[in-house]
Amino acid sequence: MTEVPVITIDGPSGSGKGTVSQQLAARLGWHYLDSGAIYRALAYAVELAGLELTEEKEKIVSLALELKLAFKPAADGGADVLLAGTDISSSIRTEECGAMASKLAADGDIRMALLQRQRDFRQPPGLVADGRDMGTVVFPDAAHKFFLTASAQIRAERRYKQLKEKGINDSIPRLFTVISERDARDAGRTNSPLIPAADAIVLDTSEMSLEQVIGHVRQKVGYQSL
Ligand code: DC
Predict the structure, then answer these.
(1) Could you point out which of 105, 142, 144, 217 has its C-alpha 20 to 30 Å from the C-alpha of 6?
(2) Per-residue pLDDT reduced to its tens digit, 29-61
(3) Contact 147, 202 (CB under 8 A)
(4) In angstroms, what is the span from residue 224 Cα to ligand 1's centroid?
(5) Which protein residues touch ligand 1 with a CB less than 6 Å away?
């Protein structure tokens, strides 16, 4: 049996990987994995259960294994995230939830508990997977791997706009600080750190439009429908 094709798009927050991945998946008619949303949903569930990472790690691992998580196509082309049937899409988009997700994500046992759930997204006709370790750990055999970057200032500005569109008010300087902290944690951890796979194409999107990024990807992967 031939393996279902996968395109991995990794990178730090605000690099454009979410938008690019969603667009690619829509244009190809492929599935889309927002792995960050899984870590965010776990952070939300951990907070809801009042669990502490330092003292109750085993309970968090069990929670990760049992998480009743579902993704439902949303009107904006993205996906609504449902936890045990409740729509938590906007609650998990705050930077606070992102920071909690990043802290949980540094733990190897927690990552392991979420691994198969992510691999299960690999369904015909194909998958676009967005995250930090899609090309290095989750889908190391992916045919096409991309790593998007952008300057911290640009990423903070993009994040500000994204949050604003979702009705969340923040400030660019604050976002610059929290995003830089989160990226340093994600890149500095021992388990599946945020680094490009050896065979990934690295694109700096600071000065690029969405169409330009997609154009680069199209050129590299050669799928006609892009
Ligand atoms: O992509 P995002 O901002 O929604 O991700 C939130 C956090 O989840 C991120 O700071 C680190 C963690 N994460 C991870 O460790 N590995 C992934 N593949 C995706 C996200």
Answers:
(1) 105
(2) 999 999 999 999 999 999 999 999 989 999 999
(3) yes
(4) 30
(5) 13, 35-36, 39-40, 98, 101-102, 105, 131-133, 182, 186
